[in-house]
Amino acid sequence: MRIAVGISTKNCAKTIESVVKIVDEGLRTYFPDKEGLIIISDGFSTDGTREIADKIESRSEKIVREQGGSLGKGNGVKTILTLSKEREAEATALVDGDLTSIKPEWIKKLLLPILEGNDLVLPFYLRDRYDGVITNQIAFPLTKTLYGVNIRQPIGGEYGLSSRYREIVLAHKLFPGKFGIDIFLTTVACCEKMKIVESVLGIKEHESTKEYDDPEKLLVPMFYQVVGTIFKLIGYYQEQIKKVEGMREIKRLGEIPAQSPSRIPVNKEMLLSKFKAKYQEFIQEKKEAEFLGDLLPSFKKIDKENIGNFSLPLELWVKAVYYSVKAFLKGEEVIDVLRALWQGRFIALVKETEKMNNQEAENYIQKQVDVFAKYKYLLK
pLDDT (tens digit, 9 = 90+) per residue, 185-215? Predict the structure, then answer.
């Protein structure tokens, strides 16, 4: 039986050698009787990532390819899954090439549940409260509320897929080319009744978190792509959403370690300055934000405040998300406006949780789902 691990890279020269060697160790240590395959799908790196990857020695077979299609993580994943299919792998794991916290046992935790009969393995990490700002404010509460599946990290980045699920996603008409690939894999599995488990991987740290302090570098482009995919999938699966009742609990494999992730620095003043600039650009002009309707008066006061008095209440944010979904599905351009409000809500979340310990902050983030559930009727 062949099993594969796909590594998506873009300018990962600093980390790719370590990631490949750890993946190789995981394959040989935990699956010595299987034929291991490492697939490196590179997203047009300009720092020598592919050349370094080519030279890395591994006991497992290794393929290094420039990804097909245009720039974007989704196209990198599609390249991996296509090669996995061609090589008839029974189970495929996906990991990012910029990971600094990956361990050999991650490979076991992503692949073994697939070999035991599951279709999708999702990661469960210990993450800083400000790592996963798209997850915490949109992806997690919408996934849990709309699809009735209790998945904590629906855009975690690392996955295990069965060959059965691989065929479903490769044939799906909404397979995204960019950052939306993670929420796509999670949402499609929820709606197509796949067997899903979470696997505890511990702490996740990666090079790209260094760019979180300046949202324009990574988080803003990611926001457009992830949120666009979320909204398209809501439209595609709206009939299933109407039928959702109750909550499907997902089995979590492994023990959560007694560790604390590294704190991600957040510059509130800089974030407020960027929020105000985007507020003026996208919201001050009523035509840009008219889909917000009766919410607009409440938003008109927000950009006047300094950091000490700044507030963007959760209920106002949740209503804006649902208004955005409805308008998006009617063909309106909404993500520019929602992106500005999201940055404002992130500042509010920072202020609301900065004095909390890790568990208190996690409980606070989890409770936000109650507000999303309260206003779910706004989608009707």
Answer: 999 999 999 999 999 999 887 665 554 455 5
Structure tokens at 130: 């400000």
Arithmetic mean of pLDDT over the chain? 93
Q: What angle do CA 277, 127, 162 make, to 5 degrees?
A: 110
* 3-class SS of residue 8: strand
For residue 227, what are the CA distances in angstroms to 176, 235, 375?
12, 13, 19
Q: What is the pLDDT of residue 243?
A: 93
Contact 20, 44 (CB under 8 A): no
Q: What amino acid occupies position 161?
A: L
CA dihedral 323, 327, 333, 335 (to 10 degrees): 30
DSSP-assigned beta bridge partners for residue 206: 99
In this structure, what DSSP letter does residue 25 have?
A: H
Q: Give the residue extent of every domain in the chain.
A: 2-253, 268-379
Report pLDDT digits (tens) over 233-286.
Answer: 999 999 999 999 999 999 999 998 888 887 888 889 998 998 998 888 888 766
> 76 pLDDT exceeds 60?
yes
Quick one: the chain helix, strand, coil %, rounded to 5?
55, 15, 35
Q: How many residues does the chain have?
A: 380
CA dihedral 343, 348, 352, 357 (to 10 degrees): 20
Q: Smallest Cα–Cα separation from 222: which of 138, 318, 320? A: 138
Which pair of structure tokens corresponds to residue 343? Answer: 């940055």
Residues in CB range of 153: below 8 A, 6 or more apart:
122, 123, 124, 125, 127, 132, 135, 140, 198
Q: Hey, which residues does 125 pair with through a beta bridge?
A: 202
CA atoms within 13 A on the CB side of 1: 15
- Say which CATH topology domain 2-253 has: Spore Coat Polysaccharide Biosynthesis Protein SpsA; Chain A (3.90.550)
- Per residue in 311-367, pLDDT (tens digit) is 999 999 999 999 999 999 999 999 999 999 999 999 999 999 999 988 899 999 999
DSSP for residue 111: H
Q: How many Å apart are CA 145 and CA 180, to the nearest integer? A: 19
Separation between Cα atoms, residue 276 and residue 85, nearest integer Å: 48
pLDDT at 220: 79
- What are 141's two structure tokens? 């509460």
